[in-house]
Amino acid sequence: MLVFAASDKGGTGRSVTSANIAYRRALGGDDVCYLDFDFGSPTAAAVFDVPGSLRGVETGGLHSYLQGTTVEPHRVDVWAESEHDVLRSRPTGAGQLVLVPGDRSGGEFTTNPATVRRCAELFLRLEEEFDIILVDLSAGRSYAVDMVLEATAREEFDALRVRWLVFHRWTRQHIIAAHGLVFGERGVVAGGVARGHEADRLRSAIRFVRAAVPDPESALFAHVPPPQAAWLRRCDQDLKELAAQLDIGVTKVLGSVPLEPVLQWREQLITDEDALTSRVANVRTRDALKRLAEALSGEKAWEPL
Amino acid sequence: MRIQPRQHMLEIWRAVARQSFTQGVWRPGDTEGESSSVEDAERLLCLMYPATELPAFRLDAPDETAADVLAALQRVGNNIDIPQKLIGAITDFTRTHTDEASVPSFAGGRYFSAVDPTAELTPEQRALGVVDSYSMSITLSLATLGFLKVLTRKVHRKDVQEMAEKLEAATRTRLSAAMVSLLRSFTVNLFDADSPQGRAVCALVNQDGLSNRLVVHQLQQRLKPLRASIREYITLGLNVVGDLDNDNLLLECGWSWGLVQDAPPVDTTEPVGAQPKGLAHQVPYLYFTVVALDGIADLFSERTLTLGLLNDEQQRLAEALRLRWEITQQYWSMVARFGEERWPLEDIPWRATARVQESEYFSLSVAAILVQDLVRRRATDDDLTRTVAVMEELAVRAKITRRMTDGDPAIALHHPGVRLPLLGSESIGPPMQWTMTDFSAQLLKRTIQLCALSRNIESHDRLLRLAEQILDHLWKRRIPSGPGANLWDNIRAVYPQSSQAGTPLSWSMTERTVECMVAAAGLYEQPPIRSRTLNDIATALLSEASHLFGKEMMEPAPALEESVRNDLGDQLTVAEGKLRRARQIVDDRPGTACTLALQVLGQLDEIALGRRAASRGV
């Protein structure tokens, strides 16, 4: 399965959440490959704590591959190279977890038919090797988005399961932005259709992920003064209505991740140890990430009504 | 018990979900053998009615279902399952109550009973339609149509879409059939002033002790405009026996219990199928009239209009029904308030004139029509206040707000209930009767409706207290455990002497209580009633507070720098904000404005006291 992680704005927790999804799927036994297409600011390596590629690799990363200067992009086996205590040894039953980083001096670049072809070939090659290929796209309507839309419009992709996750934070601006990114005039759907995608099919392959959602009922807000509580609830309700109006209501949502102090301060994986042993992270967050990872392949979430 | 519609409603829904769904699957009615279209409709309305009437409880927009509602219905499924399960349940209902020739059926079924307890009703009798079912089908069909209309905007799945389309077509037919049947159940009864019935009517309305001749004359005068409207406009499905032009005849209008004898078929292009011959005598029943009026009102509710739920032909039928609705309300409201001193309605219990029968239930029915008529006419508070006393009296007589004595005859009102002989049913079997056991719930519903209408603090408060007492009583009557737990009706909880065996689940009581809660939600939509006295006080307080505040501001301003700033400046800023807020709301919420002004006065006085103490020093 090919999964694209997109967002309109930065700071939506796209990279950190999709890295967590990748981690959870790998733990569950899937062979997972994580492609860092966030060409502007690669962060995945930091989340997985692989020091050699913290700001991307020196040479032979995704940029070099797409521009044709290397035949095969560099791969990082997270289980082997991570400095993270928990990640350092592959747990029993876990599948592969491979990171394909960008180049350190990369950045955005223009695309041409040749890069699109290389991109498509890479996806098809990885698809044979892995169960889940998670592609972390840079924020906004970037060249990367255009490139993957064009690549996946090829007929070789017709038989593949391709899915899109659009991340947004739980604020008015983020909701509007996420709606714009997908349904806007220059949005993913319009862009996809222009490149030969079928509108309905593409639309039904897109789900939203709400990140850093403050849940007024959670323990975090148990002791706020009554006016604040009333304000929070009303805002939450207004946002729900806004999301429903913009057609990104709960039926279009794959999952939501609660506001998590650990993720606010550090972009990292939430391991079971964090939630259960050291208890620096909330169990609710861990559960939300688990559910999100499961929903990725659950059919129910993708064709509800 | 305070009336909290949202919390009460959630509790009822939780119980309904437990009762009606087994592991997420709709359970068909678990009555032994015989079903009743009325009962099945009641069961569905327990969910569908609040879902359509209360925005907080809507289920047609899975994106917007509230979290507490989802928690209450978790036995049904999640926000996406619930609408699909509902479509399934209503489809089930429509299929069950459609006969082999695809004609919708409105059978009273097991709700009919034989007057003679040893007699057995024939299957043909059980299959007879009844006004309760017609009326409830209108409400349920409109709820369903609106539900589907909103839901299908968001449905992409083919199978769900197909199910919804099929259900919509079936519901539309059922709606038309119900409307046609209601038209054919309406009746106008003409009788001579000297007939036994004529004399009974005169005795009923003659509360002032006038001569019979004068009463007849007054009645005839008041009936003139009604008679004219009936003659001019009402033709569809109505056959009047007797001479409508004869001004000497008195008349009565309203709904009989089912299709009326000799009611002509209604010409319509809607596919309602064969229209069966009627049996019911041409006698309006108060109970069925109220039931019909309630259902018809939904046909021209704001929701029906804005969602455009009726097609052209249905609008024509609805128009014809509306005319009957208006005339019937006018008629009964006129009779209820006849005379100059005491209203006939205040002479409790009301006597049904066609059959010699009297009951508090009929008083309640007349009061119900009167309440609706008050809404329609935007009546003064004067008429309303008189009705308040009637409601209180009914609650006392039914022993809802008083203790039941040993062998109290009032028990019969609740159990076994008031029985209406269904005249005309004897032509195809043993005479049938209809039983009403929902007095308490009906009384609560009308009290709440009246309360929402009242803009007079005293009557509003009396009604609210009465409503709370009735709710207390009703809440106690919930089944404590076992099948139907937390639903109705456990009469023994309030009337231990009752002869009721076990605690049978009554969907009609449950549905009526749901209606009460929906009506109660309307209570809090309006702004609180304004009190002139409070408003005067608030204005005076505000004036004093503003003045003192202005004076305080003439004092040297406290320093602005952070390091030397003290709380005085903050305090004044807060006071200013409170005054501004108080001014804003003084008209709508004078009580709150008072409190704000008082707080400011207190704060200002503390400061003033400090200053005074200082000036007394050396």
Automatic annotation (TrEMBL), chain A:
Q: Is Protein transport included in the keywords of this UniProt record?
A: no
Q: Which domain of life is it from?
A: Bacteria
- GO cellular component assignments: cytoplasmic side of plasma membrane; cytosol
The family database entries (InterPro entries) matched by this protein are listed as:
P-loop_NTPase (IPR027417), ParA/MinD_ATPase (IPR050625)
Supply the alphabetized keyword list. ATP-binding, Nucleotide-binding
Q: Name one GO molecular function term.
A: ATP binding
Biological process annotations from GO: negative regulation of cell division
Q: Which PANTHER family match?
A: SEPTUM SITE-DETERMINING PROTEIN MIND HOMOLOG, CHLOROPLASTIC, SEPTUM SITE-DETERMINING PROTEIN MIND HOMOLOG, CHLOROPLASTIC-RELATED
Query: Under which name does UniProt file this protein?
Result: Septum formation inhibitor-activating ATPase
Source taxonomy: Bacteria, Bacillati, Actinomycetota, Actinomycetes, Kitasatosporales
TrEMBL record, chain B:
InterPro entries associated with the record: SCO2524-like (IPR049777)
Tell me the domain of life. Bacteria
Protein name per the record: Uncharacterized protein
Q: Which organism was this protein described from?
A: Streptomyces netropsis (Streptoverticillium netropsis)
Lineage in the entry?
A: Bacteria, Bacillati, Actinomycetota, Actinomycetes, Kitasatosporales
